[in-house]
User: Which sequence fits this backbone?
């Protein structure tokens, strides 16, 4: 893999030219969605673990 | 600010290198490098706090009898040492490495959820204060002192303990929230922020290692949080989750704890297992061997790690069938671990090796963790376990697992990436002194503990029979040598930050990966336009 990166990976010219807002905006929305999904999973595990051993 | 918002950047951050000065910069920062640095500083500070506590313990154990601390304080010291080293040092340092390096290694401008990242870090200092405050108050004569149950917090002891336990419960909740937020961030970053063309199977191994760590954490930490919530309810709200008299079951706590506690070993190991192949490859000047095999081994270790917890409970009276299951499934973990070891050895095999400080620490990990793994196999034997259980043999074993991964592995990674962070090469002479003093100190500390453990010395006792004196004196001497070795590390890092030889973009001759294509130190925002990987 390291060879692959060395031979094929090139830093694009635009690296110094600014921020690709469109690209990262698109991903930002998706990031939030994914974050919420994992948040819900965590909450479900937490509540499920207490519910499973509830004393009533 | 308007400029930042127009570019879709978090408020308070800036991609043109201008940011607020002073404390506000650190309080409000959403930059992954700033947050990574804070995690690392916090983690290593806690290493010294937890280390100082255990040096008091080793001082007490230098001779039989009670010399320096009373048993109550002794119990608090060992408990805080365990909790601080796992939750205060090892996990934050790994998260710091991930924060700093992951975006650079996968070609992202930052972590996926920068505000969450800031929040995840700033929960940590109050949690650390909550955990340790009762201890310092206790020393000053206020209150019963800190949690004193051992880091396993076994019920019913944890139900009966003083209010230091309540502080510990809230601290654990906060630490858990912090690590869950960090883990969600890592998973989302890896799944959604990779540079175009970087498929999952082209991703650096460090990212794979940390992905598995994050998956483990979001699986185990909510369960642990549920467990300590039950303890809190038993203590204050009249429930009986763990009270046999009320229909509860104290062994249930052991299951809940070890469902978190055992995968925690892999939580600490996997980020390091992901980082070390990069170090081996760089200093052997050879490509990483068995990339796919290592990725699949990470998955196997994480998967198996979740279903072996009860090997910590062989003496709790479980059925024979359960003992056999947990014994064999535990032994099965040695297969993917062996695959990793073979791949790492194959990576350096016949390489053009040089032994700079990061490589020394990586090799040190390989040897010492090997001992930890092999002694773990002995412990996994259900028939032999009663001899080892809660004896010093166990203490020596898990320090041979924890120290090489959490400390030596972290040191290897820090020394490896330090030139990229600071723009300066480290002082090699000091680095080598650090390594050798640490290795000698570590072995002098823990080899004797195998002997006294096999001879029957139990753990968590402030006094012991005279027959164990010599080995304990040697062990305590080693502990102080080990502690001193880390002062060399601090001085070396300080010297590196202050100055030293300038590091090039590619600080190490054999280093490869995206992070080595950017200047040293790396710009505030590394990849504002994603690099394309074909």
Assistant:
């Amino acid at each position: 893999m390291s060879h692959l990166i060395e031979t094929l990976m090139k830093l694009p010219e635009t690296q110094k030219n600014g921020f690709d807002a469109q690209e990262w905006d698109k991903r930002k929305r998706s990031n939030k969605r994914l974050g919420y999904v994992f948040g819900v999973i965590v909450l479900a595990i937490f509540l499920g673990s207490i519910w499973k051993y509830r004393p009533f | 600010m308007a400029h930042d918002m127009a570019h879709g950047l978090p408020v308070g951050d800036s991609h043109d290198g201008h940011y607020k000065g002073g404390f506000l910069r650190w309080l409000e920062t959403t930059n992954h490098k700033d947050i990574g640095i804070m995690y690392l500083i916090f983690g290593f500070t806690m290493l010294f706090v937890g280390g100082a506590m255990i040096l008091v313990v080793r001082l007490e154990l230098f001779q039989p009898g009670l010399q320096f601390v009373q048993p109550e304080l002794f119990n608090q010291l060992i408990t805080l040492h365990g909790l601080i080293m796992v939750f205060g040092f090892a996990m934050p340092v790994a998260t710091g490495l991930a924060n700093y390096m992951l975006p650079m290694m996968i070609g992202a401008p930052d972590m996926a959820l920068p505000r969450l990242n800031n929040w995840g870090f700033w929960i940590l200092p109050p949690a650390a204060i909550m955990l340790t405050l009762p201890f310092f108050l206790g020393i000053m004569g206020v209150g019963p002192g800190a949690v004193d149950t051992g880091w396993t917090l076994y019920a019913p002891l944890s139900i009966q303990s003083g209010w230091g336990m309540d502080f510990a419960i809230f601290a654990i909740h906060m630490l858990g929230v912090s690590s869950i937020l960090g883990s969600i961030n890592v998973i989302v970053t890896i799944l959604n922020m990779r540079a175009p063309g970087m498929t999952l199977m082209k991703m650096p191994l460090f990212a794979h290692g940390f992905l598995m760590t994050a998956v483990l954490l979001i699986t185990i930490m909510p369960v642990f949080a549920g467990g300590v919530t039950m303890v809190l309810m038993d203590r204050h709200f009249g429930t009986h989750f763990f009270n046999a008299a009320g229909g509860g079951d104290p062994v249930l706590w052991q299951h809940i704890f070890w469902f978190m506690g055992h995968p925690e070993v892999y939580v600490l190991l996997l980020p390091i297992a992901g980082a070390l192949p990069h170090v081996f490859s760089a200093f052997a000047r050879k490509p990483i061997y068995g990339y796919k095999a290592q990725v699949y081994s990470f998955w196997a270790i994480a998967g198996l790690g979740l279903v072996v917890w009860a090997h910590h409970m062989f003496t709790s009276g479980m059925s024979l069938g359960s003992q056999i299951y947990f014994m064999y499934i535990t032994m099965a973990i040695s297969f993917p671990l062996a695959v990793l070891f073979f791949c790492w050895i194959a990576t350096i095999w016949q390489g053009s090796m040089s032994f700079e400080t990061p490589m020394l620490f990586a090799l040190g990990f390989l040897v010492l963790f090997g001992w930890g793994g092999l002694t773990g196999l002995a412990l996994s034997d259900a028939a032999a376990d009663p001899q080892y259980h809660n004896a010093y043999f166990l203490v020596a074993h898990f320090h041979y697992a924890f120290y090489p991964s959490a400390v030596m592995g972290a040191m290897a990674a820090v020394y490896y990436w330090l030139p990229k962070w600071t723009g300066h090469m480290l002082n090699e002479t000091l680095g080598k002194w650090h390594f050798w003093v640490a290795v000698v100190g570590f072995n002098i500390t823990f080899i004797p503990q195998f002997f006294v453990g096999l001879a029957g010395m139990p753990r968590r006792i402030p006094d012991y029979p005279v027959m164990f004196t010599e080995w304990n004196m040697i062990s305590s001497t080693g502990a102080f040598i080990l502690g001193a070795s880390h002062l060399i590390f601090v001085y070396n890092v300080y010297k590196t930050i202050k100055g030293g030889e300038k590091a090039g973009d590619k600080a190490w001759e054999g280093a490869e990966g995206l992070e080595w294509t950017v200047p040293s130190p790396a710009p505030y925002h590394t990849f504002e336009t994603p690099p394309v990987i074909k």
Q: What stands out?
A: The first helix of chain A runs from residue 2 to 8. The two ends of chain A are 55 Å apart (CA to CA). The helical segments of chain A are 2-8, 21-52.
